[in-house]
């Protein structure tokens, strides 16, 4: 059975992994006859947000502890990740992808990537194993790998940043998937477009289905 690593950045769209994207991706992995293991880097969530008021909270929370909420406690620290044990890497979106896994939200194309995140992406790419980026996560993958083709939907500012980081962008609708076959990169817009949970579930399912064709 193929085993997929799912890289989480916390719990919640405003300061961690987008829960709908993460859960529907995990569900799709199982529905396509594969299994998953969730990972999160060691370190603090960069800014804890009140998801009702959409305002920062004066709290400190750690990425693995928050990500464990999505993983039902079965979370591994990313520093323990061994690419030999996994067939693909899936990275859900949410602002945590660009505030915790990297600081794209603050620095844009000049952003820094968490060392363990960069190491995992490079290791999977070097091993010619597929990487899936959902929603905003493709900017993180582009920052690490540069000359790849991805989609985040159709947002002009983000598309410009992808090009400045050496990537290529393909405009896609919510249900569409961009497949860079040469680099084995699979991306889809999810909530980068103003869509419903039903649309996001279709988006993630299509991405995982296309991932399976690359294994």
Describe this structure in words.
The chain has 215 residues and is of the alpha/beta class. It is built from eight helices and eleven strands. The chain has helices at 19-31, 63-70, 96-99, 104-107, 115-126, 137-145, 156-164, 197-213, and strands at residues 3-7, 35-40, 49-50, 55-56, 75-77, 88-91, 131-134, 149-150, 168-169, 178-180, 185-188. The chain has a seven-stranded mixed β-sheet. A two-stranded antiparallel ribbon has the order 3-4. Helix 1 (19-31) crosses helix 8. The longest helix is centred in the last third of the chain and has 17 residues, at 197-213. It is globular, with a radius of gyration of 15 Å. The N and C termini lie close together (11 Å).
Describe this protein with a few key phrases.
single chain, 215 residues, alpha/beta, 7-stranded mixed β-sheet, two-stranded antiparallel sheet, 8 helices, 11 strands, 35% helix, globular
């Amino acid at each position: 059975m193929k085993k997929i690593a799912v890289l989480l950045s916390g719990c919640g769209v405003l300061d961690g992994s987008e829960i709908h994207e993460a859960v529907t991706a995990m569900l799709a992995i199982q529905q396509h006859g594969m299994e998953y293991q969730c990972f999160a880097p060691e370190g603090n969530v960069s800014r804890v947000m009140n998801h009702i008021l959409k305002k920062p909270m004066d709290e400190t929370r750690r990425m693995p502890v928050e990500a464990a909420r999505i993983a039902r406690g079965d979370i591994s620290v990313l520093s323990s990740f061994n690419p030999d044990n996994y067939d693909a890497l899936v990275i859900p979106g949410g602002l945590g992808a660009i505030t915790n896994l990297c600081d794209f939200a603050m620095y844009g194309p000049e952003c820094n990537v968490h060392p363990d995140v960069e190491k995992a992406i490079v290791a999977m790419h070097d091993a010619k194993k597929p990487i899936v980026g959902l929603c905003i996560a493709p900017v993180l993958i582009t920052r690490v790998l540069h000359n790849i083709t991805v989609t985040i939907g159709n947002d002009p500012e983000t598309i410009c940043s992808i090009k400045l980081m050496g990537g290529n962008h393909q405009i896609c609708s919510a249900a569409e998937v961009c497949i860079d076959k040469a680099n084995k990169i699979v991306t889809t817009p999810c909530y980068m477009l103003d869509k419903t949970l039903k649309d996001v579930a279709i988006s993630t399912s299509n991405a995982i289905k296309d991932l399976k064709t690359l294994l």
